[in-house]
Amino acid sequence: MEWIPVLAYLLVAAAFTAVGAPIAAALFRHLPRNGAAFALPTALVPFAIAVFWIGQLTFGLHTLLLGIGLVLAGTVLAHRVGARPDWRSVAAMYGVFVVGFLIMLAFRASDPAITPQAGEQFLHFALVNTLERAESLPPEDMWFAGKPLRYYYGTQLQVASLAMLTGTAMRYGFNLGIATFYGMLFVVAYGVGSAVVQRRGYAPRIGGVVGAFFVAVGGAATTAVRLATPYLPGSVRGVVEQAAFGFVAQRFEGGDLPSTVENLSQPLDWGWWYTRYVIPGTIQEVPLYSFVKADLHGHTFANPYVLFAGALALAYYATPEAERTRRRVLVFGGLGAVAGLFGFMNTWSLPTAAGVAALTVGAADAHPATLLPETLADRLRPASAAETRGEWLAHELWRVVLAAVAGAIVLLIGIAIASPFLIFGHVPSNEGIGFFPPRSPLPAFLVMYGALMTAFAAAVATRGWPAVDDLPAPWLGAAGVLGLGAVGAALVVENAAVLALLGTLIVAGWLLVRSGRAGFGMVLLVAGAGLLAALELAHARLPLIDNPRWNTSLKVGVQAWTLGAAGAAAASVGLLHRHGGRLAAGIESLGADAEPSPDTKAALTSALTVALVVGILLTTAVFPVMMFAAEVGGPVEGGHYDPSLDGTKAVQNFHANEYEALQWLADRQGRPTIVEVPGGSYGWTSPASTFSGLPTVVGWDHQAEYRGMDAYERRVGHVDTIYAGDWEEAAALLDRYDVTYVYVGPNEKELYGDAMRSFDREAFSVAFQEDAVTIYEVDRSELPDDDGAASTRSPDSRAFHRR
After folding, report:
1. Which residue from 88, 445, 571, 721 has the highest number of Cβ atoms inside 10 Å of its Cβ?
2. Are 17 and 43 in contact (CB under 8 A)?
């Protein structure tokens, strides 16, 4: 195990936590511990934005130091305005971060290899390697030489920055970056859970532990349902089998449902990979799944910041109306900055930041109009309080409108911050937004999100039932009509039951918040359910992906879990506190000398509620237990547990004949262009550019999605010409793309065989030769120049070339 890089990362995380603590104390003044749990993201958000902007001009270690300097300036400013962290709490919260960091470290150390199978680790390892070589941002695309990267790269930028700051080789920094961001999610979840329940008068430590568990550790109900399926009564087993296993059977087993049930309902044969395939036509993950899968995907690494946006929203919610400046800073400065980070890190999260802002501004006691200049606020805010229910409803609708305006402003701020990426042509090609995609069947939806929905429904029921007595008969009648309408729509319209369920919970939750009967935990539940409802109504229209919800569900669903799980944690703690205490008091009274007269109905309700919450906790715990047993326990039990963080393990073990060649290329200075055979995704293709970060003429077929099929196939044809086509044309292409090295390895030999050209020419010299690989260096001065053939080099194709 490589402990020195581990210690280096822990020290850097401690330094960022210390630097961010005073700024967090200023922002989170009205939250427990002065926001100590949020110190790390408070520092990393401005750091990443500063590096992104400075990097447009120049990128390197000096850029990172300048970014740290700007954050330090913010720290000094926070100290001068009186912000004082609770340093004991800061140290304790850093300890919580370390716990999360070590949990993920155990997963990555058991299987550190960076592989192309069934994931995009090759894409992301290539990105961090090419960023480390970059002299400015965006970097040259390592899989489309001569052109700037067309992919949101904020995640990889942060992972590369941490490796550069610690002097850690990227083969270790890849896995340590995963552990660092998981640790940040863990501590932020702890902080949000602790703060929400403490505001309700409950034990903050319990809230923090349950929050971290639900958000960062817990899993969907899928695993528990699948393992329990063989033991269900025959009357319901058929429905459960179709809901829990149907999509896996359709996608991977040719529709063989009985065989799929047999394989995936046995603990020894269970595989965590298949737990995201539940709702037909979608991929649905929880944060632990995404981190253990070990891609550097934006939708994975954005989750700590998604919940940090929730923390900023909570701080706004807790700030008195009189503190206008603080509230404006929290919404437009804090949430605006997070939205900007999302813009170039995970664009799918940009609307989420705006939505969280709108929800919070609308839910808080402070009127949304007070965020505006006083003269305008006085005109937009109702002059008097609502006296009738009709006036109350009108005032509430006006609040929603103004809150939506605040959310739109946050969205615009985010776009402005990320404008070098979003506006100037570096976004992958897409075809806009589509509406009304195929919807989710309710049974499959509940297999995935049943635990969250149960916690949401229980919170609504316990908070809302006492309010029913206060409602006049006409309102109860209207609610009944709406409820019957929702049920009717669910029965008539295909797969509308999920929308009916989510819509009912969202409306009920919002009304409870605005009536003062529920707190910020309910706002988080509404946010999570709102994102799930969005998946039923809209999707991103992406080229070359026939399934309309495929990528949208993957990128949005995990954010819904993150926010909703934080709210479910708070709801669970509240339910256990109230009903557990009532049940304990009732049991204690039964043993007293006095004649007991317990309220049987209330005792039964409390017992059922406690059992329900315990059931939710146990259901979500099955997945992490099974995953840890498979990923860590299996190797330990088999006697082949050899912990390491070296991401090149797979190369050393399975492609040893190319290892030395890949290391030789990785040691080259600058950004010389190479050429290698491209290939399909998720296979051992484009290894030279992946492990070196050097630009190749064309790499994985992802480029067809980013730049169009014609552009991708044209370059594939150019590579064929270089290896096996007419020499005059090949020479022109070598010059056009400014190729320095030609990689001839197993992939090239297998594809071209005897048709591969001879490199026994003056234009080539052997730069490296060992085992199965020969790397030729191109001497462009020896390339033929017949009627200007060498002049075909495209100036714009070399705009990002660095030597």
Report:
1. 571
2. yes
User: Residue written as tokens 């999707």?
Assistant: 539
In the chain, where the domains are located: 264-281+429-632, 650-778
Where would I find the beta strands (DSSP E) of 483-616?
Answer: 538-540
The amino acid at 276: R
Three-state helix/strand/coil letters over 279-315: CCCCCCCCHHHHHHHCCCCHHHHCHHHHHHHHHHHHH
Task: Say which amino acid occupies 291.
Answer: F
**d(Cα 174, Cα 179) in Å, to the nearest integer?**
9
Rounded distance between C-alpha atoms, residue 534 and residue 373, angstroms: 33
What is the Cα–Cα distance from 800 to 171, expressed in whole angstroms?
A: 25
What's the pLDDT score for residue 381?
83
Confidence of residue 57 (pLDDT cuts 50, 70, 90): very high
Q: Which range is least confidently modeled, 274-288, 382-396, 727-741?
A: 382-396
Which is it for strands 773-778 and 739-744: parallel, antiparallel or unpaired? antiparallel
Peptide bond connecting 138 to the previous residue in cis, omega within 30 degrees of 0: yes
| 325, two tokens | 């400046």
* Beta strands at 673-675 and 433-435: parallel, antiparallel or unpaired: unpaired
Fold of the 650-778 domain: Rossmann fold (3.40.50)
Pairing between β-strand 538-540 and β-strand 433-435 as defined by DSSP bridges: antiparallel
Looking from the CA of 257 toward its CB, the CA atoms found within 13 Å total 12
How many Cβ atoms sit within 10 Å of the Cβ of residue 590? 9
Average pLDDT of the residues in 375-385? 78
663's tokens:
């290391």
Asked if pLDDT for residue 348 goes beyond 70, the answer is yes
